[in-house]
Amino acid sequence: MTDQPNPEKELSEQNLPGQRGDHGEEIRVQRGMFGANNGGDTSGYGGLVRSVRLPGPATRPYGGYFDEVADELEGALEEQGLIPENAITKTVVDRGELTFYIEREHLLLVARTLRDDPALRFELCTGVSGVHYPDDKGRELHGVYHLRSLTHGRVIRLEVSAPDSDPHVPSLVSVYPTNDWHERETYDFFGLIFDGHPALTRIMMPDDWQGFPQRKDYPLGGIAVEYKGAQIPAPDQRRSYS
Amino acid sequence: MSTSQASPRETTEGTVYTVTGGDWDEVVESAAKADDERIVVNMGPQHPSTHGVLRLILEIDGETVTEARCGIGYLHTGIEKNLEYRTWTQGTTFVTRMDYLTPFFNEAAYCLAVEKLLGIEDQIPDRATIIRVLLMELNRLSSHLVCIATGGMELGATTIMIYGFRDRELILDIFELITGLRMNHAFIRPGGLAQDLPPGTVDQLRDLVKTMKKNLPEYDKLATGNPIFKARMQDIGYLDLTGCMALGATGPILRAAGLAHDLRKTDPYCGYENYDFDVPTADTCDSYGRFLIRLEEMRQSLRIVEQCIARLEPGPVMVADKKIAWPAQLALGPDGLGNSLDHIKKIMGTSMEALIHHFKLVTEGFRVPPGQAYVAVESPKGELGAHVVSDGSTRPFRVHFRDPSFTNLQSMAAMCEGGQIADVIVAVASIDPVMGGVDR
Lengths: 242, 440
What we know:
Chain A has helices at 66-79, 84-87, 107-116, 179-190, and strands at residues 25-31, 49-54, 88-94, 97-102, 124-132, 141-149, 154-162, 168-170, 193-195, 225-227, 230-232.
């Protein structure tokens, strides 16, 4: 008995149960459940460890017009003396949408190429949307651009990231003037600084506002209210199930 | 009136006058004494013709606007942040309040994005989709009516205002019949609709279509050929196609520049490819062209509404998946709209599992697999996009709305600079900004 290893004690990878969602890229590790972090854990769910993963890089073929867009973009970047792998760090195809993750120093060139190349012609930028991933170290702040080609009837997404310690991304106003207000809004809410923007000031919040409200570490605020005799806590103090 | 309110203050930027009404003589007198003609006028944020709390900062030289800037943010309510603290279903209650004149478009864009993340686009029942289209097209009518009505009023044409709001009220009556509310409906939900159409709706819709067909030509008679109306609108607020593309302007502004770009045709959603309608364009690039396009779009929307009525077949209005579908159907009780008594009887009296299921789904909500989605719909103002990010939890990780009002309002400076100050009002009205959508 003693020379036989106990299979239940052996924690090599093949003996561990498979994780749901091994694929993709981890952005956070979620511990516990029900948001109850203090006090005794009687449910046992407090020990739950789960990694939160976003869809990972796709392999060719991407399907649909995505391959054509990717080929044309890579070709056009090569023509300009840029190795595509240096500019496009990752290509994700998820839920029928194509996303290029762009190195921020090459964003301006990539956007200009996407707009001007006759085979690409993404004339319309629908602005930038910021996303804050506080636990994705070194890539906390994301800028997400959706580009629409009216000529070819296509939509793609560009995503750039910047670390919290150096929240700088080049401004696309010179390529897409419509991004003027959108970049001001993203700066206002996330503190992402768009280098080269003509007048990067707050747009929604008052000029003297402190902090960046849409960041995850910025509290929502609110006060508890009484309803039918019970105190209902403020929305950000309520139980969360994540 | 007190002179203290109107007395000029000296600042480093020049003399500041606070105009409170009735003291124009004093301002004009002081301005005449000043050594230059340049005056900066602060219009808004409280001003009847600035469409809510829009602040226009106009630098004028005589009657000519030399520089125009917008100040926005006065109606910022943090809806996008708030969404991150509610379940996915509760999100509709917030997004419907963004652009409060186009609530169904906000709800539809949000719900389509959530459904895309859930991967259940194919499971949405046909009836739910048809009712969504029906509501969106009625909403397009009501939004355009407000635009034309308030735009007319700002020109002094109060009859158009009365007519526009008269017809909008008829549509809001239908909304009230269907959803219980005139605005802020939260009726379109992830997975389908909050409830089915109440009895008698189709008859009322037919009556509405009939009335609207009679009323819409009245706008033509009143305004389209009216020389004063044309003189005020033609060549005002000029923005050509190049300007539209650079500034990201969509909707009637883009179509008035001659490009027939309508997401319902170019990137169809909700089965719009199966409906028969035209996309009107103009080549005038001005406020008058936008007005004509809005009029024609209302007629086209009526066509779509008629097709929707013809296609309505009985059936479910929510996905069959019980892990997503709201557990209860609403019913009208003695104290208003609420959970149906049958449902409460079932979960409280007969089925413990159903009670647990109801409780979990309503308090915790459903989980949405991690990822991001962008869904755009053609709102009356242009491309309304919802960028929704999930981290796999029961709440949105991030929701961003690309509101067409916000983007289109950027073109105000391009439309107004070099023009007359009176034309600023016309140009802004033709953009049709709604500050609830701009500021969110």
